[in-house]
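protein under study:
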Amino acid sequence: MKKKRPDRRAGRGAQSGASRPGTSWHGARRVSEKPTEEQIATMTIDRIAKGGDGVGRANGLACFVPRTAPGDVAQVAYVAHARHGRGRVLQIVTPSAHRVEPRCVHYERDRCGGCQLQHLDDATQHEARRHIVQDALARIGKRTIDLPELVTGDSWGYRGRLTLMLLPRGRGWTGGLHPHDDAARVFHLEECPIANPVLVQCWRDLRERLHGMPTDRFLRVSFRLLSADAGAETVAVVVQGGEAWSGAAEWAAALLRASSPVRAVWWLPRGGEAVGLAGDVATDAATVGAAFELERVAPGGNAPPDEAAEAGRYEPDAREALAFAQVNPRVAMALRDFVYASVQSFSPTRVIDAYAGSGELTERFARDGAHVVSIEADASGTTATRRRVDDAGLAERVEVVTALVESALASALPADVVVLNPPRAGVAVGVTALLEQAANRGVRGIVYVSCDPATLARDLARVPGWRIDAVRCFDMFPQTAHVETVCVLRPETTT
């Protein structure tokens, strides 16, 4: 499955330090508002909302309070807005029975933005994610469902990718992550217990060589697990940023010697093409390109993407989406298997794989004999798909289209099943308009893979002619509030 790509945004970033008066934080976004006096109230936290904040009530107003737990009785300073309040904890009066000690030293000390729920036990986290999906479908999508099943995996050490920000400090660099409430600051990363320990060790090895990095106003360094066999893990390292780098090859060779798991070192200069510096870099960039895909989503290991964009430090570029990969291989495999089984339940002869990424599912459907139209806007993704199906001898069964789904879907129809795996923003209104009428063109099923329950629910509200046949959630990012959801739709039957 491909990596989700959020909407691009740019703007001015927050100042260093605590939140300024007149600034509120909602999820990953900083929202400027007119200064309002804080009020103080003692409230009981009832539930966890999308984004990970606890929700209580103050004077009849729903109030969102970060890093609280269901059952907490907390004294909260909050600012009232039109429909809700935003608060901060002054004191936990009575702690919830669902609280646990956060495992990561950065969670409370540095207010790390990578995780939102380390203070909750696993069972409470699981229930929160299931309820977030159920609530979104009811409230936004006007769809009533039973509490969905959640597929889980390892709670710690599951991440196969770690991307860190490097900011200049004196004559050196500070490397790490952003606090959840301050996108302009980076704290020095010592540990990350949700990442594979080998990635953290590679970061420690690289940290000793920061003096040789290229000059720029910021850099990113990405560590991508290439093989995960215990005791034999290998890692690709990608340095992102800078326009000139004297001594790059020597620096990369020294890193290879110092860090045994590192198999390849790449450099992605600002505005340039990827350069293989040392190690196993002979492979085509589109094949190893998963290492270049930036962590543009908040779950575990990086600050929220729009915070970095708001800080004016990075503008996403499709060139970096050389391949698509999930950070949690075990749960991602379970998700892919469920999508595959859901599609096969329709016994399709023609499948549309929309937002197809690098074509992993496209190949799988074609191997089972279906004709597949694979649609992906990123040319690197379609290049990888063509290579994949050519190598498998499946080219005659696959039509690869490099285009936006909203421009290519109409001509791709009819089909038995349409698979949707859009970015966080969901699908365009033109796509849902086509899908609402798609049953008239022979479509018997829609399988929608979503990384945002709110946009999933919005899109389902736009297709009232389709009923939910099955919903399953996948705990791709433990210790965060994020959840992946697969929704299987069938046409409403008339009596």
